[in-house]
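Supplementary notes (optional reading)

For those who missed the lab, this is the record we used. Protein: phosphoenolpyruvate--protein phosphotransferase. Length: 754 residues.
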Amino acid sequence: MRGAMGGPRLLLKRLREVMAEPVSAQERLDKTVVLIAANMVAEVCSVYVLRSDGTLELYATEGLNPNAVHLTTMRKGEGLVGLVAKEAEAVTTSDAQHHPSFSYKPETGEEIYNAFLGVPILRAGETLGVLVVQNRAQRTYSEEEIEALLTVAMVLAEMIASGELQALARPGADLASRRPLHLTGAPLAEGVGLGHVVLHEPRVVVKTLIADDVGRETNRLDNAIVGLRDSIDAMLDRGDLARATETLDVLEAYRMFAQDRGWITKMREVIATGVTAEAAVQRVQSDTRARMQRVADPILRERLYDLDDLANRLLRQLTGDGHHVSADSMPKDAILVARSMGPAALLDYSRDSLRGLILEEGGPTSHVAIVARALGIATVGEVPGITNLVESGDAIIVDGTSGDVQVRPAADVEKAYAEKVRFRARRQEQYQALRHLPSRTRDGRDIRLFLNAGLLVDLPHVKESGADGIGLFRTELQFMIASQFPRTGEQHALYKAVLEAAGDRPVTFRTLDIGGDKVLPYMHQIEEENPALGWRAIRLGLDRPGLMRSQLRALLQAAAGRELRVMFPMVAAVEEFDAARDVVEREITFLRRHGKPLPDLVKLGAMVEVPALLFQLDEILERVDFLSVGSNDLFQFLYAVDRGNARVAGRFDTLSTSVMRALKSIVDKAGEAGVPVTLCGELASKPLEALALIGLGFRQLSMTPSAIGPVKAMVLETDAGEVGDLVRRHVAADAERPLREALRDFAEQRGIPL
């Protein structure tokens, strides 16, 4: 480097002194460009900052016309400076005025300069501005000088991200680093939450960028890499996939990346410019992210998340920071943001402080989404890159009904959502007024509304919502959030608490529906190509009879002196139900022999969610006391659609003719056999879909607690005979108009609230 002041390390040390001075933001920037120009023997040094409207504004300069500061602007892609911002890569030329991207800005007086070096000011891969040096002579800047300028740009990135420069912005010219963002994802749990970002795995904040001892920093990096490799190997050896939230393939990819010589060499080279090991990791990852964001290949872009996670793990090795935020340090209006998380982690947070949840991963049927709905937390999933687009403490809004996420919202947007929250509160008050009214249609048909539950936090909803009982109690949630297999006594205590909370209302317990995507962290996992079609639910229970027997014994004892309703999930053949019923009878015999109190009545049912059972309805109806339709899995299997795959999950309508005909065959056959049938999937939780189910003949629906009020309001204004005629016509003949459209018009014409 042709530095006049001792090279890049001395430059960084002097920059640290400038950053610590008690001066204004503009003075700090002005001193910075003077220092850089002197060190690099450059006649010009300029800082351009990216604004929220996508333009670059000159914020400070040494060498150009000082009157151009805050006046000169250019678009991304315009001129050499705009090219640097667009490509997020360094651009250098010895003859700037003959470069094809050169753009003349007469107010700056830069036409006399030939040599140009511009580097992007990057943070988390996002371009925040451009740092430029220029010389009159047609000189070539060395690799060492480019590296030094990139490192200095990292210091400026922290200054911009801190918000210090926002005070210099003209009205309406906010910085890009603080610009409002409107993102969309998959709505997972209804509601609207306004608050401030809390990162579930807080980004490691690199507070010390400039190194005092380069050799020591290199050793720290090497030791941290060894620790990172050891931690990945340990996870692979233990098969600890549930806790780490990565698949085996991803962990293998992590191990490959952690051994990558190019990645490690690059970090060592950055340390050599005079920065700390943490700053080197951050710099290399930011550069990598900027490059990969421009890659069109979706598979390669998916690897970006893995690289981000690996870099964060390495930073934690260096800093010793923990993985999760302290629940005690949360603001009172926390919106939790995470790449992914399990249901147990969500339950660790105080419900009093939590207003919403946003996930990069996780679909409507993910277990954390189920828990979020139970807690009444507005939740949106499948929001790409959200953890890198927000900072802790950012204002944020999550709309779990539409899937919209507003980051750093403008005042008018925040005001509109605040009104939406007030409107929802008024509607909830209206629903509360309906809770004691019988759920009866205008033509006198009783529609029993049950709720879906699975945790103790769900139990108050039974009385609060005015539900007729619990139509589906997911017993597996207790197992999924536990650190070890719940003992029979623990299961007994939960089931007894559920029955006591329900009082004289019925409760239907579903036996363990684990396997597939429902992983228990303490059970050995079997690798399957198609887990949803594999060893799960009743199949696992029958193959592991000890597991099923301990649960049934706990249920039978908890229900002593009252009615017990138990249903078995994913029954594909009547023989499976017969085998499960035999296990129940053996447990009853065992308890009776030992003088244990028993339920007054035991009713057994099956879930209809495997299409094969549609062709065995006559046989299964001869055996069961009741049926429950699991519309989520039934729809998935009917259309061969993975509910968690965003590319196909919305491809087919849940009110399509095929689905309606399948459901009609169930309700008709059950009616002929005199066997009660309940639908307990997502369909029942939406007023429009529930209207279709009433038209098909369903008189028992089970849904999320928050849906009881809206569905009851719909029921009270509906004529079941009328909607039945409409639905039957559509099911009998493949009508030209979609049933969804016809039902919406039907409801609008009759004033039925949806």
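If you only remember one thing from this example: The mean pLDDT is 85.
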